[in-house]
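Annex B.
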Amino acid sequence: MKDQFKQEIKTVIEATQAKGDIDSIYLVACGGSHAFLQPAEYVLTKETTIPATVLPSREFITREPKALGEHSLVVSCSHSGTTPETVAATKYAREQGALTVAFAFADESPLEEEAEYTIHYAWGPETDASDLNTGVLYGWLFAYLNVINPSEKYDRALKALDVLNDVTTKTREQYTPIIAKWASELKREPLVYSVASGINAGQAYSFAICWLQEMQWVNSAYIHSGEYFHGPFEITDFDVPFIMCEGLGKARAMDERAVDFAKKHSDKVYVIDNKDFDMSLIDEDLQDYYSQIVSGVVYRLIAESFAYERGHSLDVRRYMWKLEY
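Fructosamine deglycase: predicted structure tokens.
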């Protein structure tokens, strides 16, 4: 990880320590950034007793959380640092006395002006995985956990960032021919469902609303594996496509149940099985947490392959950034 990002994380950790006891954590953002923060909630709720809640930026304001106050930590994210709802949510949190920390790619943005502290990350196809948004998020997350409850586990989790790029590179090489076949078979589908749970929920949600709906104009919806049998499975049919993710943690049982049913009733089930990832460089007890980053590599490959097969650039928009909304 770049020294700049390490220093920004260090500054935030010191500010958190100076703040004193944190009794609530809110993770607020929109769209893909909202999905990006979901794994942090997953890890925080498993590793600490401090309540952590992830909310869309606008709802964070309209809900007016009773627990929000001077002992709250509010973490927001906007890639450009200009998302109006997230800028407003960060301002609102700071006005309530909360410690505000923003993640952003852009420098000197409106979000950075509203947040007390900003942690930046890098972007681009040649960027080391530890410097991308998820890598830097984990750099902060495990450093924070190591302060409030010191453990060699979190030391190892931070060291795993050093090998993350090797893991993601290997995964991309492994899945490139597989995903090319998937995209060729799915390129004319007007609708594709995205199913997952646990640590992978954010990636599957982002795949549905960002990669497919926003960037490919393909109808989609995210379905939680555990909720599949409480309504959504009724749309399963032989010609209905699903991209389903099976994780590594205890939530895997939910994923497997959903996959097993879908495969019996649909001829178009495509499974991202995290057990197929080569994560041997990362300690086994940490693989569940890191698996969603690796899943993200596969989801991105699917989106890129869709764009190629369908002749539809991931950068094309009809409304976003073009109309007033």
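The chain has a mean pLDDT of 98. The radius of gyration is 19 Å. Further annotation is deferred to the next reporting cycle.
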